[in-house]
Amino acid sequence: MSSIPTLPGVRSRLVDTPRIRQHLIETGPDDGVPVLFVHGNASSATFWEEVMLALPAGTRGLAPDLRGYGDTEDLVIDATRGVQDWVDDLVALLDVLGVDSVHVVGHSLGGTVVFGLLAAVPGRLRSATLVAPGSPFGFGGSGPDGAPSWPDGAGSGAGVVNPEFARRIGIGDRSSDDPVSSPRVVMNSFYWKPPFRPAREEALLSSVLSEKVGPDRYPGDAQPSPNWPGAAPGRFGPINAISARWAGDLAARVVAATPKPPVLWVRGDADQIVADGSLFDIATLGSLGVVPGWPGAAQCPPQPMVSQVRGVLAQYAAGGGAVRELVIADAGHTPYIEQPAAFQAALHAHLGG
Questions:
Q1: Which of 238, 205, 204, 209 is nearest to 221 (CA)?
Q2: Minimal CB count within 10 Å: which of 58, 60, 185, 328?
Q3: Is 334 helix (H, G, I), strand (E, B) or coil?
Q4: What span, in angstroms and rounded, lies between the C-alpha atoms of 62 and 35?
Q5: Range of the domain at 95
Q6: 88, part of any domain
């Protein structure tokens, strides 16, 4: 069923829900303790296969392709709802599968979706694991307190995505001919810490290339803005959905969640994507002189992504939630692929706890 060959022991099927036909890969027994895995941007459920196969006995791994990715039905993401389209899709999937409560693991954009699940359905989560999660204040375009740098969210969203990178995804480009826009080069430069190269590089590249591309798909539409860098998030697509414009009160809702499932926050010590000073944040690039016209830190500071996540989780813990932060050495943005033994040990302990 999957367009990308799966590893032995991984099952693949399509599941119809009232919202969307979702592609799902599974491992373990149907009556096992369920663990839901949520992938990040420019990837798919394929990224989770090794982690799912290594789960403890008696555990059921579930990893869907999100709306806009992989082999899931190609429907538009309403960015004005923030991450809620994905949250509602996942809840509908769990309902159809008959899963009342679940451990959930989310990576990058998928970590932001897990923040959405913590805010919307905390009573259905046995635990949450956040792997290099995007900030609940949105990706880009906000300062230390999480407030948008500009009222229209300029500095975040589809308008700051390299259009040539999106074009190359759309045509399925597997080359290594450009250090900035070739999907293979971007993956190997930023998804993990160079010179690491994954054993399943070709399958993971196919996963990157499975994202749906277009003005209302990836990266989404942009609107002209009088604020630097001249573009604000539009209303469609995944990068607008995680923008500062549409994040709303997600962080406050996470802090206020009741009950509070235990949270494990895992990140690599060399992450260049989700970082205080991310190389994917237009304000960071402006401060380095890479993008001209930056108006300065007073108006448009580089986003302190890690500090924002830590601050929200500290408030979550102060309200009674158990939180553990784990920094994995010699790893970039995807520590569960780069350092699987360290990641799996922490995950298994968290699931058992």
A1: 238
A2: 58
A3: coil
A4: 6
A5: 11-144+243-352
A6: yes
What are φ and ψ of residue 254, in 5° steps? Answer: -65, -45
Position 291 pLDDT exceeds 80: yes
Q: Which residues contact 76 (CB under 8 A, 6 or more apart)?
A: 216, 217, 236
Quick: pLDDT tens for 81-112: 999 999 999 999 999 999 999 999 999 999 99
Tokens (6 digits) for 165: 């990178």
* Residue showing tokens 């001249």: 230
First to last CA, the chain: 34
**Angle between helix 84-97 and 109-120 (nearest 10):** 70
Residue whose C-alpha is closest to residue 183's, from 172, 193, 194: 172
Could you tell me if 291 and 154 are in contact, meaning their C-beta atoms sit under 8 angstroms apart? no
Show contacts of 342-347: CB within 8 Å, 24+ apart: 343/51, 343/131, 343/266, 344/51, 344/54, 346/264, 346/266, 347/51, 347/105, 347/129, 347/264, 347/266
* Residue 45: per-residue pLDDT: 98
Q: Is the pLDDT of residue 1 over 80?
A: no
Residue 182 lies in a domain: no
